[in-house]
Amino acid sequence: MRLLAKFNLIVGLVLGAGLAVAAVVSHQFLQNGAREEVLRQARLMIEAMQSARDYTSKQIKPLLVTQVQQQDTFLPQTVPAFAATENFAQLRVSYPDYAYKEAVLNPTNPRDRAVDWEADIINAFHNQPAGTKDLVGERDTPTGRSLYMARPIQARPPCLECHSVPSEAPAAMLRRYGSNNGFGWRPNEIVGAQIVSVPMALPTRMANREFLTLVSCLAAVFLASLVLLDLLLLFTVVRPLRKLSAAADQISIGQVDMPELPASGSDEIAILAGSFNRMRRSLDRAMKMLGS
Prior knowledge:
The chain is α+β, with helices and mostly antiparallel strands. The chain has two domains: about 5-200, no CATH class; about 210-290, Helicase, Ruva Protein, domain 3, CATH 1.10.8. About 60% of the residues lie in helices and about 10% in strands. It has helices at about 5-70, 80-90, 115-125, 160-165, 170-175, 200-250, 270-290; strands at about 100-105, 135-140, 145-155, 190-200. It has a four-stranded antiparallel beta sheet, with helices on both faces. The chain is rod-shaped and about 135 Å long. The two termini are about 45 Å apart.
């Protein structure tokens, strides 16, 4: 096997092992990074929906109070939870993998009723220390693992205006939803949770895409480095050694009258060339002495 081939084999094995280790470490790192990115987006979505709730209760609802009272009607658009849910429906056009729900244990609107796993999250907030802001977890679904972030919903004004007792609720709301659900809320009680969920396939897909990009870049750098090292080795080691080998072949057949090899420098190749030149001169003198 030629020297350059041996060098490529050794360097390839070393760099290949390093590339494999870097790939394993970076894959896990990218998986964690993608998960954190998804949670960051989920947190931003919850903040945005909370802003929609606050905007509805502080600015939209006061503008419509007079109209609602005069017409004796109920407009769900004045309900913060309804506004947040409808806002997210528009946001989901750009983020189809994300789902949002204002899950409530005892809601007025049946679409907000918490299913089993959502009820578990709400109950988990009851068992957490006071002031717990977010809960993050994973769960199994029929389509695979799902990642969720939840934030508690507390019964505070103006929610209690409609959810304390039926007699305090607007008559138009009672006609629409009845008086059996959505009442009995107590001040500062955790009655539900804002929940953003996303399939684990999304962060996995994000991480795999970044991983392929990273591995491709590392492989390109590896190949470029190997080519550069080959060129440097060719001009600094292989070509001088080939000249020494060719000169040795000539001397082996008795041709000692040849120009000396370049021996400038202080590296091993230059030292070897100088030693070879001295050997050739000594052999030349010896051959001349024998001839005389």
